[in-house]
Amino acid sequence: MTEIKLKVKEHNGKTLMEAMAEEGVQLSGTCGGMGTCGKCRVYANGQDVLACRHLVTEDVTVLVADDGRMDASVKESPLKLPEGFCCDEAEEDAYGIALDLGTTTVVVMLWDLHRGRLTDVKAVTNPQKHYGADVMSRIGFVLRAPWNLTRLQSRLINEINQAISRMTADHGIGLTQIRKITAVGNTTMSHLFLGEDVSGLAAYPFQPAFCGSVRTTARAVGLAAHEEAEVYVAPNMAGHVGSDITAGILASGYMEEDAQGSRLFLDIGTNGEIFLAGEDQSYCCSTAAGPAFEGSALHQGMRAADGAIYKVNLVENKVKCETVGDAPAKGICGSGIIDALAVLLETGIMDRFGGIETDFVLAEERSELPAVAITQKDIREVQMAKAAVFAGCKTLLAEAGLDLDDLSEIGIAGAFGNGICIESGIAIGLLPKTDPGRFRSLGNAAGLGASMMLLSEPCRKKAEDIAASAKHVELAALTSFQSRYIEEMNF
Fold it and tell me: Are 233 and 214 in contact (CB under 8 A)?
């Protein structure tokens, strides 16, 4: 247990969750402060309370289970620029920051602009997460009070600034040497980064405050850099198809002139974003996958930190689990739940409709850790998420007059793409049923694309062309999508 002391004179009237966030302690929470998920449960002055609902009215000592806290940082794989990549000319002491503003994780990359070299990278948990695990929860939080937009923006900017300050200090770089900043993210995250109105994203027809690229300054946004450093926010494609997809497509090379055949691009997270690069026309859409694949919506879900079950196999008719860091099992992350459901389906423990007779235990109780189990509700969460993603894929293909056999490649972006077992994804109906060899993990394509735009003005122009040329397919307006969604619910 971790002990945090809060003074009423500093936090009077705030929720425990807000007060603890100001003290640098981020709690897990998926319901946006509505008190329904129960993941922010703590002990406050001996009482068992929900931190998002309990107000600070006196000095309070809070006890938090160590596995209830959000991780301060996560590992991030190195980036590699495309072969033959050309950087813009820059002064010898000039540095830049590329930002990948993920709903769950924010990746901050420090680049030497003169040498085109990655100097450092930090990936930190998005501090907005305890206001809601998905973008719709955060939009709802903003709409509840006029000052909540500023609150979310300041939390995000402060976390980014701390990462920038740590990296520059580690490498003996002055903040005034930061001359350029490029940011990508889903449409909601781009708006929250700039402090723009998100009310248009709350409901159909999902109208963003801006869609094209934005150029401003570090001073205007409040970033730790030279005050006149240019901040470039890459163009979104549509209401819920963000600049992270624009960046990912840029990095993948799917829209280059020498790219062969039609290609499908998947970015699966709390918001499933899909891009189809056809021979003559590109298409994009987004679908609400929810936080199941991030682990957040699951009974014992967690991110891929030490103790998370990330792989489940059937070995000699016995279920075997592997955990991150080989640590005792504390919960299960996105790749683990996909493996687990594939195994339950193969063994007949789960039927094709997703039914199980009782909770299935993956890891028995040990020492002070409870058993890790999959519940019926967990399965329903995954069913809804995987149905939305696969129905989105089929709808885009139909719009383009294509089928699976017409695809030369299916790229999966992000940490999810690195961790998922393709065979398991196919087995449960998350991924298209085709030859696993046609899939390619694209890694942090959004981060790479953001870096390419930071280092090259021509890449920015390419990104803007990609965003402008894509035809957005609004799934919510199509009865065909609703029909496919229902069809894909079964396993």
Answer: yes
